[in-house]
């Protein structure tokens, strides 16, 4: 299992546009087999930083998603929306291995449904 952590530097005057962008990608990631854990928008503190987390069963599954998204009309439209609005200034991507508590209280890697 692999979780992708995205840290975005956003335009603080385009938070609503970024939120729209995020809602589009939540649906798209799930359509491509991932589990999206949400976008996290500025509230207190920095007004130009947002985060997103989503998980795929494996790095290979994530790579398949990236390849498919590169030619998918809805994905391309979402990228274009971000470019047109300027809501994203830059982003950083990290790959993480999640650990969750199992039923006994011990920690273990959790499998996607």
From TrEMBL:
It comes from the Bacteria. Residues 7-99 form the NIPSNAP domain. InterPro entries: Dimeric_a/b-barrel, NIPSNAP. Pfam families: NIPSNAP. SUPFAM superfamilies: Dimeric alpha+beta barrel. This is NIPSNAP family protein.
